[in-house]
Amino acid sequence: MKLVLVALFAAGGGIAGLSNAASGQVAAAAAPIFGIKMPAGYRDWRLISVAHEEGKLNDFRAILGNDTAIKAYREGAHPFPDGTIIARLAWSYDPLEESEKAFGHPQSFVAGSPKNGVQFMVKDSVKYASTGGWGFAHFNDGKPADETVHNTCFACHATVKDRDFVFNRYAP
Amino acid sequence: MKLVLVALFAAGGGIAGLSNAASGQVAAAAAPIFGIKMPAGYRDWRLISVAHEEGKLNDFRAILGNDTAIKAYREGAHPFPDGTIIARLAWSYDPLEESEKAFGHPQSFVAGSPKNGVQFMVKDSVKYASTGGWGFAHFNDGKPADETVHNTCFACHATVKDRDFVFNRYAP
Asked: Hey, which residues does B118 pair with through a beta bridge?
């Protein structure tokens, strides 16, 4: 709570200044290979969809998009226009205590603490021409992950080349 | 797609006019007991958290909040101030086809079609004094659910009275 209040004062008290402080993740450094910095205020972006990864990842995810991304999704634009940024947030996958008590077994799962970092896809068809027009960035606790991590992004996203390399569809 | 474009023209082309049309759920009627209508533009609200219900419900959820709700969550306000509105959206809980193919078993789950309706909690400590200051509303395909459904809301939320009757915490 103290950290949030300090940030509020620094930002002049407006709620617009809350976003990064409230997300608890502020990064100044750019991620390797694609040179992407954490976009300011991404925690305030609108929702694209939600996801859950099982197994080793075992997390809850929210996919948020900047205004360009949301507009493109809603209009069915393909490929996504330059300027599109998609954010993938993730948290631990926790049973909700109250519902487990009420049902006698896990029934409801909710997002817990931040987990597995925050990722971004940035569309720039010229700058990132060799990777389908997308740059990729992964941050752990606000710090960019290393080059090895960033070398894995495009290969995986290439499996959905026909969806412009984007896994998540818009949840209406 | 046709519906979205028509709405765009009607709203003068701005992205702000997209929200309800893009959500596919527009309700004019008020829900019983609490008399709550679907708030305009709720699909554009910021994210509070995500959730998953197992068993019969078997859905993916996103909890969104209006500006009053987001501010209250980030500042740790308790109880939530009058004017707070919390929205609960839900979709089918679908395996992501591409990851199932790649892993040989379901690994990633994503939101599919809208499912189990859209719900709202509206804070008005005077109007809804007898139900902890909260009014509840449930809409299926844009239409209010019946009175029986609305009679179940408060009893269940009463299990988290110490959190001002709100199940979901803010996901940072």
From this structure: B139
8 Å CB contact of A47 and B64: yes
> What percent of chain B is modeled with pLDDT above 70?
84
Asked if the C-beta of B37 comes within 8 angstroms of chain A's C-beta atoms, the answer is no
| DSSP code, position A84 | -
Residue B25 has pLDDT above 60, yes or no: no
**Quick one: CA dihedral A157, A159, A162, A166, positive or negative?**
negative
ipTM, two decimals, is 0.85
Q: Is B127 on the interface with A (CB under 8 A)?
A: no
Assess A114–B contact: CB distance below 8 Å, yes or no: yes
Q: Does B71 touch chain A (CB under 8 A)?
A: yes
pLDDT beyond 70 at B151: yes
Cis peptide preceding B32, ω within 30 of 0:
no
Q: Which residues of A touch B110 (CB under 8 A)?
A: 49-51, 167-169
CB crowding B128-165: b at 16 or more within 10 Å, else e = beebbbbbbbbbbebebbeeebbeebbeebeebeeebb
CB pairs under 8 A between A and B: 133
Q: Using an 8 Å CB-CB cutoff, list chain B residues near A15.
A: 67, 70-71, 74
Amino acid A27: pLDDT: 57
What average pLDDT does this structure show over B13-33?
Answer: 57
**Quick one: pLDDT at residue B26?**
57
Q: Do A106 and B75 touch (CB under 8 A)?
A: no
Q: Does A4 touch chain B (CB under 8 A)?
A: yes
Contact with chain B for residue A158, Cβ under 8 A: no
pTM as predicted: 0.85
Contacts of A54 (CB under 8 A, 6+ apart): B106, B107, B108, B109
What distance in Å separates the CA atoms of residue B79 and residue B125, rounded to the nearest whole number?
10
Does the pLDDT of residue A68 top 80, yes or no? yes
Per-residue model confidence as pLDDT tens digits over B44-71:
999 999 999 999 999 999 999 999 999 9
**Tokens standing for A68?**
């360009």
Q: Where are the beta strands (DSSP E) in B3-142?
A: 46-53, 59-65, 85-95, 108-114, 118-123, 134-140
